[in-house]
Specification:
This protein is mainly alpha-helical and about 550 residues long. The protein is about 60% helix and about 5% strand. The protein folds into three domains: about 5-355, no CATH class; about 360-465, no CATH class; about 475-539, no CATH class. The strands form two sheets. A four-stranded mixed beta sheet has the order 3-4-6-5. It has a two-stranded antiparallel ribbon with strand order 1-2. Strand 3, helix 22 (about 490-495) and strand 4 form a beta-alpha-beta unit. It starts with a helix and ends with a strand.
Length: about 550
Amino acid sequence: MNDIFKRLAQFPTRLFVIVIGAGLFIPFLGHVHLFDWDEINFAESAREMLVSGNFHQVQINFQPFFEKPPLFMWMQALCMHFLGTDEFSARFPNAIFGILTMLLTYNIGKHYFSVTFGVFWALLMACSFLPFFYFKSGIIDPVFNYFIFLSLYWLFKISIKDEFESGKTLRKKMMRFTVYSAIACGLAVLTKGPVAILIIVLVVTSVGIWNRGRITFNLSSFITWFVIVTLIISIWLSYESKGIGVKFLKEFFYYQVRLFTTADAGHAGPVYYHFVLLLLGCFPASILLWGAFKRNNEDTIHQLLLKRWMLALLSVVLILFSITQTKIVHYSSLCYLPITFLAAYYMHKVYEGKKKWHWGMSVGLFLLALLWATAIGGAMYIFAQKIPLPPINDLFANEALKAKVYWNVKELIIPSLFLFLIILSIIAIHFNRKALAFGILFMASGIFASLIALLMAPRVERYSQNAMIDFLKKASIEDCRFEARGFKSYAIYYYGQMSPTPASNKTFVISKINLIEKIDTSDLTMLYTKNGFVFFQKK
């Protein structure tokens, strides 16, 4: 067991990485409905591309949607075309990019450190909680972040110079890497928007300042990079603006500005929001990374520079989205890559005997594991035993919690086993059984995250939106219109399967019980209420 990670070098390790990634990310992708807003928003845009045949323009309710570029929706539409219009197809692109991200981290870690480092980094990306859930979702960010990170990686390769190479070889290599980086950046912009360029420029600038200007870039590289990125963006904008003209550019620009200057869609939060989120959510990597900050004199210059780039990326993204007014969980998701890198760096040093395991890591792992086990176990126990909750000053929430959801108290074994395995891993590391300790840590985190996704997500969904989605799926058989009154929802389009010209004249209206007094119901006939939702039909 002590040499298990080294023995991986004797096997096709990339196949191992692919199998682990596929085993974690692909199963049960479609076992729970898509969540409002983001997952359903993107899936609906992809569905409307297939229904309308309009692939050059992102739409919602068959009207132009100016907030996002089309690349991710094209991927979803492709999956829906071959696999069917369902939750699995909507989430499948991210599962694939999760595997690709694991392969990328493995290859980088192997190239600059060792096979063991690459395996640690890939497994941390797969088994840390937030990255795991993120690759099983239907949001844009896994694809967006993959292309940003790929672009930065090629720029990093430009920034390091092999003194044994001839000038001609070096120039050719720089030009090739510049083109690769620019293409990846252009694809990132086509996935989510120009914030990709901002992040890349800020990271490169930060590294340049840190290195006191000593980066192997030249003017021709910069010009080539910006010309290619601009060309890719221009091709997309000319295609997207077809039939709309400058209106698209204006609306898209205003949306990007609004995200940074206002709490868009009510997603406000304190300045420390992302720091706390990443600390709690990226277990176990968020604890292990702290051991990587001290400089190690045994690092090669390339290892030192790669670590510096990772620290710059972490700092830029964390600061940028901390000062941004809109606070959403996945906005800081690009931090997952440098966080897991730093955690892998520390694990690798400990595994190779070049660093001692710090007792603070044991305390941090235990406390955070205890917090997660207590939170999940406590929720399971309260709902399984039907223990009355404290009064909630929210009529909709009170009604939503009345949903009939089955909880099994026997499932408390899951958080208990998770905590036990973490303690076992800590004990093993203190007995110098490092491979055993790290193997148990990966297994505990990956299995716990998988079981929580499998058991908890469908139950949370039954409380939050299931009553509405069940209504939409049943009523959509009539090919009618749906309307959400008093609140915003993309579910009415996706699960209502709305078409541009519905066959039926019926219109169903959905609201929430706490909004009834605030909306006009004079043109509506109430059908019934369920779990906080109120369902009407227009007269």
